[in-house]
User: Which sequence fits this backbone?
């Protein structure tokens, strides 16, 4: 079946409209250290009252086929030295390098399902920290399903595989629902329309987009303007209760095999 999506390449004005309604829009990739730092800074600013929305993109989906894992990991190691040098006084960036850099198709798909279900703020830190703090393989659909299961079941999705079982991605790492599939295309279309395919990209209200390292520095400047203490530990949103899945307000319906008859 072919699904036609008329919103996949939105004009830049629609991104500006979103930034006006939300505060700031951030485009980033879960295995990009600059995106990780930018997300943490904006999360700290959200506590102070600045709204933002994170939109996930897979920065370079073909890179995994063009370079070896050792080359990708060596590049991240070098990049981390630069990232750590950009931290503000008393700011921390917890991380443990895992020895590999996974592609993020499954992570982006799972995050899109979380966004469609209204639990993006729960899912994003789970995915960022799964790689940067725990070294989990975000390219594995089984890992993404496990990470996001509780969050998805606590969301508002009407899809049975999501609300009953928390299946945020299919076995190939793709989205489960049309709504999430459209979000993945929409976010990527918006991101590419900005003119530079780098991450992160920060789109503030009433200001031009800020790209790459400059986006991270801009988020740091906002922390100074909003008097945000960079040493304050971040507290991430937690999954909510699972929604009822039948007409009797029961939270979960499990299949239990019949007890084998005694011989």
Assistant:
């Amino acid at each position: 079946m072919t699904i036609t999506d008329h919103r996949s390449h939105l004009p830049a004005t629609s991104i500006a409209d979103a930034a006006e309604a939300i505060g700031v829009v951030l485009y980033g990739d879960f295995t990009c250290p600059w995106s990780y730092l930018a997300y943490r800074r904006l999360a700290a600013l959200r506590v102070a009252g600045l709204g933002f929305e994170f939109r996930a993109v897979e920065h370079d989906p073909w890179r995994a086929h063009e370079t070896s894992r050792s080359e990708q990991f060596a590049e991240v190691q070098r990049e981390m030295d630069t990232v750590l040098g950009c931290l503000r006084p008393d700011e921390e960036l917890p991380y443990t390098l895992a020895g590999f850099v996974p592609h993020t198709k499954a992570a982006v798909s799972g995050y899109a399902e979380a966004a469609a279900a209204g639990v993006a703020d729960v899912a994003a830190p789970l995915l960022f920290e799964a790689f940067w703090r725990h070294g989990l393989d975000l390219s594995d659909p089984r890992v993404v399903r496990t990470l996001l299961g509780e969050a998805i079941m606590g969301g508002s999705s009407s899809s049975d595989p999501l609300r009953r079982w928390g299946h945020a991605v299919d076995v190939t790492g793709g989205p489960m629902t049309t709504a999430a599939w459209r979000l993945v295309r929409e976010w990527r279309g918006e991101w590419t329309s900005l003119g530079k395919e780098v991450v992160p990209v920060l789109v503030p209200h009433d200001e031009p987009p800020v790209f790459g390292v400059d986006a991270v520095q801009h988020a740091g400047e906002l922390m100074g303007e909003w008097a945000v203490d960079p040493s304050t530990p971040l507290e991430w949103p937690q999954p909510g209760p699972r929604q009822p899945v039948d007409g009797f307000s029961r939270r979960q319906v499990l299949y239990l095999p019949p007890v084998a008859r005694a011989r």
